[in-house]
Write a structure and sequence with these properties.
mainly alpha; 1 helix; rod-shaped; transmembrane; transmembrane helix
């Protein structure tokens, strides 16, 4: 039971890390697009 619990914790940590990386990538891309758009006008 403890082993199963640690596996589920590891899986949720991996999902959380992937979500943070994906969110950071989206934010960086959004900021870059916004910067290019503001420079264009």
């Amino acid at each position: 039971m403890a082993m199963l619990n640690s596996v589920s914790v590891g899986a949720s940590v991996a999902v959380a890390r992937r979500t943070v990386i994906l969110g950071g990538f989206i934010v960086v891309r959004f900021v870059l697009e916004l910067g290019q758009w503001s420079h264009r006008h």
